[in-house]
Design brief:
Order of helices and strands: HHHH
Radius of gyration: 38 Å
Largest sheet: none
Number of helices: 4
Distance between the termini: 128 Å
Strand content: under 5%
Helix content: 55-70%
């Protein structure tokens, strides 16, 4: 009778080991569940991106508005009846405070008399 109890106890310990610590045990199931959840989240993100791209393809195939928008944004194109204006931000010169009205490429104040004299001497 003692050997039967010992065999049953050994079988119980072996089954507990396989349940908790083996490759197909509880830890592996929990790891796979978290992996599946992260993969489902990634799939949802990619499905949304696919829907957006499909809508963009549909717009490009059906009308000229999307093509015109892409040409303006990506290629910098303008229509024939439009005028292009480029706004260049003013930068402060070295040593002058920002917004003082002096362009960044202006000559220093000490060079102005020499420049005026040189330009006056030209015919």
């Amino acid at each position: 009778m003692k050997w039967l109890a010992a065999a049953l106890l050994a079988a119980l310990l072996l089954l507990q080991y396989r349940l908790w610590l083996s490759a197909g045990g509880v830890r592996e199931v929990l790891r796979l569940r978290t992996e599946v959840a992260s993969q489902e989240q990634l799939n949802a993100t990619l499905a949304e991106r696919n829907r957006e791209l499909a809508g963009e393809v549909r717009d490009l195939k059906q009308g000229f508005a999307a093509i015109e928008e892409r040409a303006r944004a990506d290629l910098g194109m303008i229509a024939g009846n439009e005028t292009f204006y480029q706004v260049v931000p003013r930068r402060a010169a070295a040593g002058s405070p920002a917004g003082s009205g002096t362009p960044a490429n202006a000559p220093p104040e000490s060079a102005l008399p020499a420049l005026r004299a040189a330009s006056a001497a030209r015919p």
